[in-house]
Amino acid sequence: MGITERREREREEVRRKILDAARELFATEGYDRVTMRRIAEAIEYSPTTIYLHFEDKEDLVRALCHADFGRLLEAMETVGRPEDPVEAIRWLGRAYCSFALEHPNQYRFMFMTPVGRDERPPEGGNPGSLSFVHLLDAVRGAIAAGRFRPIEPLTAAQVLWMSVHGVAAALITLPAAHWPHGPASPDLVDQVVDNALRGLLAGPAEA
């Protein structure tokens, strides 16, 4: 490995450390309370080093969102989706919740941490939007195939998303001992997805 390659590798490693530290701090201490200096202290670097990689905190947040939503998009795209649109929605729900459980800090930052995101990302051109498109396309397919009752596709997709988001958030934030009357059922994710689907199906409950 040459000097240039080694320096680039070291630079990427520092950048990764910054993003990992920022993600955890935003999730545990809150976006408003975390400064660039606080992030630098967490990884034992000077604030100057942080600014060599990111212009400001908003720039860091944009990079963090792009990286984490990119991981979610990869999880949605690599899942083995059935051709049947209703079954595909089930698989997407499982993939979504699996991502949340495998990457809890990332998920907390992405969906459960209020941060300053004044800029509206370009429609359909970022990993977050593209992840949702997979669900929206499956919903449109279910409606077109007559599997879902006539409903506005975006609304139906939002209903399904909120269902899986709710169970994912609960599973990564609520300790097993704090679940009412016992820990979460092992098949809770499947039960939540099936229940959400049941309200959208055109015919007798198939879920």
List the helices and strands and how they pair.
Elements: H1 3-29, H2 36-42, H3 47-53, H4 57-78, H5 85-102, H6 104-112, H7 127-144, H8 153-173, H9 188-198
Task: Explain what the structure shows.
The protein has 207 residues and is an all-alpha fold. It has helices at residues 3-29, 36-42, 47-53, 57-78, 85-102, 104-112, 127-144, 153-173, 188-198. It folds into two domains: 1-54, Arc Repressor Mutant, subunit A; 65-198, Tetracycline Repressor, domain 2 (Orthogonal Bundle), CATH 1.10.357. α5 packs parallel to α8 and α7 packs across α8 (153-173). The radius of gyration is 20 Å and the shape is elongated. The termini are far apart.
Order of helices and strands: HHHHHHHHH
Q: Helical element count?
A: 9
Strand content: under 5%
Q: How helix-rich are the residues, as a percent range? A: 55-70%
What is the CATH topology assignment of the largest domain?
Tetracycline Repressor, domain 2
